[in-house]
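Researcher: I'd like a candidate sequence for this fold, 380 residues long. If you have to choose between options at a position, lean toward the conservative one.
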């Protein structure tokens, strides 16, 4: 790296805030009301060594020659500082009734998280590494604050379980959650999603060809979007029974109109000069549709598909509250809440969130591949 590149890289780095110094203060100040049977936390070799390691890594990062090395050292620092409160709570310390200075270590770890994300986000190299690591680090910081806050303030698990309890429920109830996933996602969501999106797309093509049909369907789409799921789901259960068919019907209703509206808007997005050019060459409606209007409508189509990927899962889960076999994600949430097994409820919510986020991410990747020519992707 040339001196000019090193100078520009250093000027782009965010200044190091005095976050590790908070850990130094916490190391020197004793707790205020700990149980006398336990030693002071700063006398324990594990927490003290972790604090020293965190401070050393943070200071060493300032002499790093590249932003990547500084970011990795900042990650090491925040991990070392972050494990201190967890180590103390595992040894029986109550952060709600004493050990107040330990919260300075938590604040220092969060400050180092902020600094690490700022350094990694400003890197000019390793773009893929940056795009993956920064969001992952942000999510891990939220989970850490959740864990420390719940355990530190002794929040009852019936109100909010800690992330480690949710992870334990995921492992211990993996078979049950897999059966719920099959019933809700593989049977109801996917079938209803495909049927709703496909029917909305095809009817939009017909409505585009028949103008009065579009004028009649758009007000109905606005009306249907205002109908609550809790009003549709019981009716679908009465019509189609308690199995997956009624949930798929709810998904069809929820996904049909967003796809219809987005497809119609996309078909009308082709520029007038392009349509005039096609007409000047004597190109008919269907060739214009497949060679010009549908490619121009792809961003709108993917927008509808991404919106429906989350609506479909929400609709199927809510519909299962109104009648289902003794399996399904909605059934699991309602039944486990009644039994006060909140960790299983959060485990089911986690599965639903991962499935919805994964489906949205896959559709976003497909959109990027199919619409690479769009101005929103050219500069990325």
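Model: Candidate sequence:
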């Amino acid at each position: 790296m040339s001196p000019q590149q090193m100078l520009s890289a250093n000027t782009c780095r965010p200044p190091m805030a005095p976050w590790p110094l908070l850990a130094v203060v916490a190391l020197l100040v004793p707790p205020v009301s700990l149980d006398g049977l336990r030693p002071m936390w700063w006398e324990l070799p594990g927490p003290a060594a972790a604090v020293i390691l965190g401070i050393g890594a943070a200071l060493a990062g300032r002499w790093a020659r590249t932003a990547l090395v500084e970011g990795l050292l900042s990650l090491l620092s925040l991990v070392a500082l972050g494990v201190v409160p967890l180590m103390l709570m595992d040894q029986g310390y109550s952060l709600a009734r004493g050990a107040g200075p330990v919260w300075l270590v938590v604040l220092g770890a969060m400050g180092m998280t902020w600094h690490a994300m700022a350094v990694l986000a400003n890197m000019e190299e390793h773009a893929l590494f940056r795009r993956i690591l920064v969001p992952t680090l942000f999510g891990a910081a939220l989970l850490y604050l959740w864990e420390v806050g719940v355990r530190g303030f002794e929040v009852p698990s019936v109100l909010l379980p800690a992330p480690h309890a949710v992870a334990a429920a995921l492992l211990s109830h993996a078979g049950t959650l897999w059966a719920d996933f099959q019933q809700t996602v593989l049977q109801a969501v996917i079938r209803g999603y495909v049927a709703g999106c496909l029917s909305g797309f095809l009817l939009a093509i017909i409505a585009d060809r028949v103008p009065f049909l579009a004028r009649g369907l758009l007000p109905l789409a606005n009306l249907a979007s205002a109908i609550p799921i809790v009003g549709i789901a019981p009716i679908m259960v009465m019509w189609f029974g308690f199995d997956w068919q009624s949930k798929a019907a709810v998904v069809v209703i929820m996904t049909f109109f967003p796809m219809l509206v987005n497809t119609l808007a996309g078909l009308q997005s082709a520029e007038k000069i392009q349509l005039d050019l096609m007409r000047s060459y004597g190109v008919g409606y269907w060739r214009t549709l497949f060679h010009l209007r549908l490619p121009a409508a792809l961003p709108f189509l993917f927008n509808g598909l991404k919106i429906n990927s989350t609506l479909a899962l929400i609709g199927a889960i809510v519909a299962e509250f109104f009648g289902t076999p003794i399996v399904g994600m909605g059934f699991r949430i309602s039944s486990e809440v009644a039994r006060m097994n909140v960790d299983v409820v959060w485990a089911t919510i986690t599965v639903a969130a991962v499935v919805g986020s994964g489906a949205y991410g896959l559709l976003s990747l497909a959109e990027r591949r199919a619409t690479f020519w769009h101005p929103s992707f050219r500069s990325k």
